[in-house]
Specification:
Layout: H1 3-24, H2 31-69
Helix pairs in contact: 1-2
């Protein structure tokens, strides 16, 4: 696996772990904590979307390179 892929995956793993710890430490009964939880979940969704798009583009580049070689 290329180094940039490993770095991105490590960043996502680290961020998810931090978010999970924040959520676990919250008093989920309070409205403020519920808003914070929603904000964190939105951040996770955005991060996953960004990383997914990166890998989709990477796959497109690889297919383009393979087609140009043929």
């Amino acid at each position: 696996m290329p180094a940039i892929d490993r770095v991105l995956i490590d960043m996502v793993d680290k961020n998810n772990t931090q978010v999970e710890q924040k959520i676990a430490n919250m008093d989920l009964m309070s409205p403020k904590a519920q808003l914070e939880q929603q904000r964190l979940m939105n951040q996770i969704s955005a991060l996953i979307s960004t990383v997914s798009k990166f890998f989709e583009k990477k796959a497109d580049w690889i297919q383009l390179i393979i087609r140009s070689i043929k």
